[in-house]
């Protein structure tokens, strides 16, 4: 509408004109785009499904069932019937009409397999005696008593020669086995076994003569007949360029085998950490690698390491996560762990809040024990919150897309979270020791116990404990850093201990913080009962056993708390002393369970004492706390 008139007008969109914008300015179809170049004729750029000079004709070559076995069809040229099929796994061909050959392998080997390559090889009529590679598959962490199914990509038959190469951390750990050796190359499905009797040794291990071993390759080949004649049990052997079989008359039949390099030379640095060995393959313009990890190291990059006397949330929980998969597709163990941690945080929030509201009252904290319990409730809840943040951190780095991850924030979280979790956990243990020691002093002093002195000691003891625990693990933030998997761009927070003395120091510190609180709580529980029994027995001249029973019944709140703390600390102590270096899934479940059980004291339930009769009226506003105790 004009400002000085009641007339209206239409502002037309692109490609339209006229008073009512109902006249097209281009001769192209509405779904296409018109491109003008000066005075030249306009060109119509058609969308998918249309063709012609004006894009007015429609045709879809994928309208009919063009691809077999549920393959996805994509038009390549709308002017013709050309299209491309994206085949489902296990199928190939222009129309996905062929099914790939399938090989089922069961492993019955003695040695552990860190990584392996299965190679489908065959012979060409035009190149006599030369093995050529059809397909290679790189696998990691194979169960020596398990089984797998693999496919010969873009081939309808299993190759006549299928080889299994196994790798370890050291170069000397290389092994070669024959999986398939057949004359008939037309078998589409086959089952075989990887057994020790089908292992091929290096020819140097069979010659047994150092002089013969040092011969040049051409001279050494002439001696291969001796190997088969002297060792009838030998089925096959190999050298740097040949793969030889001993036939029924103990004569060697050698084929030329071109060994491709497995050294990771396409990366600037070795992606495998903690001493892992990088193994690569190049297969049909596809490059991939895996890591052969040393003992007690796990993960795609050997980034998870387990050391004695230490239990880390990253290692125990990270081993079970499937990177890149949504939470709904994670294993039941991962989902269960998340549920348990959430329950721990919520229950701990309630119990620690009740404990705090009880002991924040002046009458409940007139002695050191009340102040210790007040501080303990704050430390425990903070520790549970850090555990929850740590869980979110691990899940976020593994399940989120790489583009959504802020590496600067993750670097600081990686350095701080595990450090905070460790010192808060240890500080909670040592605070329970302070409570136990004060109870022992109270029993020894009796009526001479000074509450004012007890309150003054709390300030010094808590400060010393915080400095001691924080200084003990000050090396942790310095040893943690972020690494990225070059294939999936998945981010991991890893720990690197560079020198042996650092490993020894960390083991000793963990032992001190494990055994120290455990021993002190155990000693205080025994000392309390024994001292009370002796004192009462001297006064009342009664039988020691009867007096012991009376004291246990009367002062059970002083004895039960240390005993519960001892029982809850036992799983963590036992699992820390026993090496968690295992690849058995059920053992890792046991270690995760023991690790989560060790967080139960942070709920503050075992350390809440039953209020004595004079304290009950003061605790009336928090009666739920009394029930919880």
UniProtKB/TrEMBL annotation:
Q: Which keywords appear in this protein's UniProt record, sorted alphabetically? A: Disulfide bond, EGF-like domain, Membrane, Repeat, Transmembrane, Transmembrane helix
Q: Which Gene3D superfamilies match?
A: Laminin, Rhodopsin 7-helix transmembrane proteins
Q: Mind listing the GO molecular function terms for this protein?
A: G protein-coupled receptor activity
Ranges of residues in domain EGF-like: 17-56, 58-97, 260-303
Q: Which residues form the signal peptide?
A: none
Q: Which cysteines are joined by disulfide bonds?
A: 46-55, 87-96, 293-302
Where does it live in the cell?
Membrane
Q: Which GO terms describe its cellular component?
A: membrane
The highest taxon in the source lineage is: Eukaryota
Stretches that traverse the bilayer: 338-359, 371-396, 416-437, 457-475, 508-532, 553-574, 586-603
Q: Name one Pfam family in it.
A: 7tm_1
Family annotation (InterPro entries): EGF, GPCR_Rhodpsn, Notch_Cell-Fate_Det
Task: Name the chain's protein.
Answer: EGF-like domain-containing protein
